[in-house]
């Protein structure tokens, strides 16, 4: 028996001796899926048509109309509360996350976690790595949890096209599996405008993030 | 059929699928991660995403393959999140398996292989698990991992060499134990 055959046998021996907690997995998967579905339903009722409006903004961006259009929500869309930063809005918030973004947080109503809402209200960036740094800080990483307000195809990535304020070069980052946990490292400190696309391009939003200069 | 009947029917179909596939998915997740809780989380996330798209998934020729792809994608995402903080280790510990839920016999065998896999780069580990546990060919493995077939071949050769070096004669003994 050669090594590859031995490996096949060993993997079977290892995997088949565990007893998967089937009931827990089925119940947990269904409950998690049901929560996602409820979030999607609430979103559909509250923000019907937002996807189309977001797409229009994204197309405008792609046509080079700039970040002013992206950071100005249409009148029919929810506007992030708080005072928008002139330099690099919208602001980082630390109050309670939107209900649809609270799954998985042990005490979501308590707030305290920094987050930024997309200009269309379709996605939240939860900044576990706040302040974000370029290059990456020595004491923490640029960890961001992306939470979308509606269902997306898990087969499609979240594509982030980042443009630093005052420049035109696009830095693309791709997050497999769509909105979810990520490390988002960008090349230099400054105000970055992020054009976000997920669910195969059917859903889009944008937001600005500040990357500070990492301490030496 | 009323709306609630349709939901009930859908849930019933999903639950049957989930009950049948959660075991194999968990075993794959277990080999991919070596971490009981993470394997549970990956499978639940996989089933949740399948649940959301169940009407479409149920019509697929091979829903099980779709679920496996979702699992691998979920694992890839997790892997990227952890890439700065998680390194291959020589630590023999396998984390998180609750007492009573561990393999019934011969834990040394399991630790030996999982330890060997744990010393590999995580992509190499995924390649080996998909090829030798899921029994996928090079092209199917490449498709699942989003890399070229040549890269899969290269990684397979390298990972096998490293695993052989890490396990030494232990693997030879596995079938006989």
Question: How large is the share of residues in beta strands of chain B?
Answer: under 5%
Specify which chain pair forms the largest interface: A-B, 47 and 61 residues
Compressed to H and E, one letter per element, the order of chain A equals: HHHHEEEEEEEEE
Number of helical elements of chain A: 4
Order of strands in the sheet with the most strands of chain A?
A: 3-9-8-5-6
Compute the number of helices of chain B: 9
SSE order of chain B: HHHHHHHHH
Give the fraction of residues assigned to helices of chain A: 25-40%
Question: What attributes characterize this protein structure?
Answer:
heterodimer; A: alpha+beta; five-stranded mixed beta sheet; 4 helices; 26% helix; globular; B: 177 residues; mainly alpha; 9 helices
Description:
The complex is a heterodimer of chains A (216) and B (177). Chain A is α+β, with helices and mostly antiparallel strands and 216 residues long. Helix content of chain A is 26%, strand content 24%. Chain A has a five-stranded mixed sheet. A four-stranded antiparallel sheet of chain A has the order 1-2-4-7, with no helix packed on it. The longest helix of chain A is centred in the N-terminal third of the chain and has 25 residues, at 22-46. Chain A starts with a helix and ends with a strand. The model of chain A is unreliable at 47-86 (pLDDT under 50). With 177 residues, chain B is mainly α. In chain B, helix 2 (36-52) crosses helix 4 and helix 5 (107-118) packs across helix 8. The model of chain B is unreliable at 80-107 (pLDDT under 50). Classes of the chains: A alpha+beta (216), B mainly alpha (177).
């Amino acid at each position: 028996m050669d090594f590859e055959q031995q490996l096949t046998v060993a993997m079977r021996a290892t995997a088949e001796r565990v007893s998967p907690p089937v009931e827990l997995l089925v119940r947990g998967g269904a409950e998690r899926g049901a929560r996602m579905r409820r979030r999607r339903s609430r979103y559909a009722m509250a923000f019907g048509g937002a996807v189309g409006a977001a797409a229009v903004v994204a197309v405008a961006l792609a046509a080079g109309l700039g970040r002013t259009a992206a950071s100005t929500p249409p009148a029919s869309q929810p506007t992030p509360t708080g005072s928008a930063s002139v330099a690099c809005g919208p602001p980082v918030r630390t109050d309670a996350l939107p209900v649809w973004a609270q799954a998985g947080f042990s005490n979501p109503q308590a707030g305290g976690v920094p987050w930024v809402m997309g200009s269309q209200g379709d996605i939240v960036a939860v900044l576990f790595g706040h302040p974000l740094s370029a290059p990456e800080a020595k004491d923490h990483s640029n960890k961001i949890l992306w939470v979308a307000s509606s269902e997306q195809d898990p087969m499609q990535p979240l594509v982030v096209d980042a443009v630093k304020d005052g420049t035109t070069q696009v830095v693309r980052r791709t997050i497999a599996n769509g909105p979810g946990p990520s490390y988002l490292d960008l090349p230099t400190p400054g105000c970055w405008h992020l054009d976000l696309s997920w669910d195969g391009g059917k859903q889009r939003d944008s937001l600005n993030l500040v990357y500070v200069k990492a301490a030496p | 059929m009323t709306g609630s009947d349709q939901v009930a029917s859908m849930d019933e179909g999903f639950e049957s699928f989930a009950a049948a596939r959660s075991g194999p998915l968990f075993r794959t997740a277990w080999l991919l991660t070596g971490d009981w809780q993470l394997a549970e989380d990956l499978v639940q996330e996989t089933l949740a995403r399948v649940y959301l798209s169940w009407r479409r998934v149920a019509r697929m020729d091979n829903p099980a393959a779709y679920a496996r792809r979702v699992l691998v994608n979920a694992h890839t995402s997790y892997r990227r999140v952890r890439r700065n903080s998680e390194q291959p280790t020589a630590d023999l510990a396998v984390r998180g398996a609750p007492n009573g839920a561990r393999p019934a016999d011969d834990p040394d065998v399991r630790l030996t292989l999982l330890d060997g896999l744990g010393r590999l780069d995580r992509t190499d580990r995924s390649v080996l698990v998909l090829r030798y546990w899921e029994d996928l060919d090079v092209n199917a493995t490449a498709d699942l991992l989003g890399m070229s077939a040549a890269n899969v071949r290269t990684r397979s050769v390298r990972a096998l060499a490293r695993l052989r070096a890490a396990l030494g004669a232990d693997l030879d003994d596995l079938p006989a134990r």
